TrEMBL record:
Bilayer topology annotation: Multi-pass membrane protein
This protein's name: Thiol-disulfide oxidoreductase
Keywords, in A-Z order: Membrane, Transmembrane, Transmembrane helix
Organism of derivation: Methyloprofundus sedimenti
Residue stretches making up the HTTM-like domain: 14-276
PANTHER family in the cross-refs: HTTM DOMAIN-CONTAINING PROTEIN, SPORULATION-DELAYING PROTEIN SDPB
Main location: membrane
InterPro entries: DCC1-like, HTTM-like, Sporulation_signal_mat
Cellular compartments annotated: Endomembrane system
Pfam entry (one): DCC1-like
Keyword Protein biosynthesis applies: no
Example of a GO cellular component annotation carried by this entry: endomembrane system
Membrane-spanning segments: 12-38, 58-76, 83-99, 111-131, 152-170, 215-232, 239-259, 265-285, 441-460, 480-502
Length: 633
């Protein structure tokens, strides 16, 4: 088996893929991470404080979250990518395992982001669409800029999809086989009809189509079961891409767990067929440059300007030519004296119009299209004159050979930064190809074993037997060993059971709780948390939704756990709405809903309607919390 796997690995290693795909994947992953860090900063007192704003146990949390946000920003723009992605991976592990973020505020995708982040460490994420790439090119004259690697091994795209999506889907479908509403084809319909889980978008027109909902439900089961076996085949890849991306877009817009949907969608970028990227490039990239800019090839500042603009010119709309060697290609400039031309930045468009100075930059931004807003701003009265004066100051200093820090030549070893991808997939794989493919095969087998340990342990054994009650010492030792292995694989690789939204979650889920408060004028108002319909309001989505809908309010409500989270929500949002927690009163509301395993028309509408009744009062006096709550029947 090891030999067969090693041959498959060799076959895919020898295939190449455009490296810019990984750069785009890095950007989307970084954006998902960055928005989640901003979310954590906003809710840091709710998530990390034992008593929000009152008992602040982790005062340094905002600082570390800010550092993490900077790291995520570096991942997005591609600056120091190898260091940044490792730091991001460490931040995810630390926050998930050493704060309440995972225990009480599970975002549903933290471990997924850890797993994807692990594979990003070994991918050539800085070789395209990155600041690292630009910094490397700035070491050279524009016309001598080296051609950077534009291809990478298909393995670097295939492995993350196989492990992070394929294993996840296969594990998830195992758990779904034990859920009646999933077997009835209602896996997507039921949570979309539950007030705590639905988004603000009213999709009743879809939910009331029984055949459509069952088709979607069974499609998910078939898709998840077959994905790992067929996604890598070229003929099936577009099908799995479109279906999978469509399903996760549906999750993003229909549920209030949008970070999970967006995180999964980012990996689908690696599945886009190469021919689609080529077709997209042919559609948008100019075949002929729309503007030719002439620059002084001996001026370091001019070379840097040309390199920077060329780096961000995604549509290849601007071409740069050296005035001293290629002036003959522009007859429109023949009437100018060479010293005049060298003192400014001149450009010629397709119509033969000549631009100079600030007007050249305006045309550059306009032709690049996605930066056209800067062209419009620079044309504005006042801004145009300031930009012209600034440009004149820099150009005249350069003309007088007064070189400031912007025009000094860079001093650096002219080698591209070595990352883990180049060390493993290029150097090691070339020097020891046989050893490389066998070790990759062993790594793959280890990952399969780790995933099987999780899937069999929780997908079958725990559902069929109560392992904790088994008195056989061998079975108990195996259970402990399995748990230990799972703890390590979960912590560092994100391999975990994906038993989401199953029957043991929704069976008996018939109670909703909401909170109102008495304002300074004595009026009862709804806390901006759960509204009158029972929906959770933005921004209380993602991990805050998980805290309330998956831990505090469940089919079997734990009074102590519920009291804890009512305390946290009232303290956090009470502070946000301006209440004085030395003297504040909150009212706990309750209403009934239905969670059937058979399809029903208008279930979403019925669950959003219904009467609320008062079941308790939470009071804050001198910043001490007390809850008087009736038994919920």
């Amino acid at each position: 088996m090891l030999s067969n796997i090693s041959r498959i690995i060799e076959r895919y290693y020898l295939r190449s893929a455009p490296v810019f795909i990984i750069g785009i994947f890095r950007i989307f992953y970084g954006i998902v991470a960055f928005q989640e860090i901003i979310f954590l900063l906003y809710f840091n007192h709710l998530i990390f404080d034992p008593i929000p704003y009152i008992d602040v146990e982790f005062p340094m949390i905002p600082l570390f979250l800010s550092l993490w946000a900077i790291v995520a920003g570096c991942v997005i723009v591609g600056y120091r990518t190898q260091v940044a992605i490792i730091a991001n991976y460490i931040f995810w592990i630390v926050f998930v395992n050493f704060t309440p973020m995972q225990r009480d505020f599970d975002g549903g995708f933290d471990l997924f982001m850890i797993g994807v982040g692990f594979f990003l460490i070994f991918m050539p994420i800085g070789r395209a669409v990155s600041i690292d790439n630009l910094l490397y090119k700035l070491q050279f004259k524009y016309q001598n800029s080296p051609v950077l690697p534009e291809r990478c091994s298909v393995l670097s795209l295939l492995f993350p999809v196989l492990i992070c999506l394929g294993f996840l889907y296969f594990d998830s479908v195992i758990h779904k086989l034990f859920a009646p509403h999933w077997l009835n084809g209602l896996g997507g319909w039921l949570p979309s009809s539950m007030p705590y889980y639905m988004s603000a978008l009213d999709l009743s027109w879809m939910l009331n189509q029984e055949i459509l909902q069952k088709f979607i439900g069974y499609l998910i089961l078939v898709f998840q079961f077959t994905f790992i076996f067929l996604f890598y085949r070229r003929s099936f890849r577009p099908i799995f891409l479109l279906v999978g991306a469509g399903l996760h877009i549906g999750i993003t817009i229909s549920f209030n767990i949008y970070p999970f949907g967006l995180g999964m969608l980012s990996v689908y970028i690696l599945m886009v067929p190469f021919s689609w990227w080529a077709a997209l490039a042919n559609r948008f990239i100019y075949q002929t440059p729309q503007l030719v800019v002439f620059y002084d090839g001996d001026c370091p500042l001019c070379n840097r300007t040309a390199t920077i603009i060329n780096h961000f010119d995604l549509l290849q709309a601007v071409a740069f030519k050296d005035l001293q060697t290629q002036i003959d290609s522009a007859p429109q400039l023949q009437k100018y004296d060479q010293q005049v031309l060298l003192a400014d930045l001149y450009a010629v468009d397709l119509q033969g119009r000549v631009y100079e100075g600030v007007d050249t930059y305006i045309q550059v931004f306009q032709k690049m299209r996605y930066l056209a807003v800067f062209a419009w701003l620079m044309r504005a009265p006042g801004i145009y004159h300031i930009a012209k004066a600034l440009y004149r100051h820099i150009a005249d200093n350069r003309a007088r050979n007064v070189c400031d820090e912007f025009c000094l030549p860079a001093v650096s070893i002219k080698t591209y930064p070595v990352d883990l991808y180049s060390r493993i997939f290029e150097n090691y794989a070339v020097q020891k190809p046989k050893q490389f493919r066998f070790r990759m095969a062993k790594i793959f087998i280890i990952l399969v074993i780790l995933q099987l340990n999780s899937s069999i342990h929780y997908g079958f054994l725990y559902r069929l037997y109560d392992l904790s009650s088994v008195e056989n010492p061998v079975v108990n030792q195996l259970r402990l060993l399995s748990n230990s292995v799972l703890m390590l694989s979960t912590t560092f690789l994100g391999i975990t059971p994906h038993a989401l939204y199953l029957h043991d979650h929704f069976q008996g889920y018939e109670d909703l709780l909401a909170i109102t408060y008495i304002d300074m004028q004595g009026y009862e108002r709804w806390l901006p948390f759960v509204n009158q319909q029972g929906r959770m309001l933005a921004p209380n989505w993602g991990r805050v939704h998980s805290m309330w809908a998956n831990i505090a309010v469940t089919p079997n409500i734990n009074p102590e756990r519920l009291s804890k989270f009512i305390m946290k929500v009232t303290a956090f949002w009470g502070n946000k709405v301006g209440l004085d927690l030395n003297h504040a009163q909150f009212i706990i509301k309750h209403k009934k809903i239905n969670s059937p395993v058979q399809w029903r028309i208008n279930l979403r509408k019925d669950n959003l309607s219904g009467e609320w009744i008062t079941v308790g009062i939470a009071t804050w006096k001198n910043k001490h919390y007390q809850l008087d709550l009736q038994a919920i029947k």
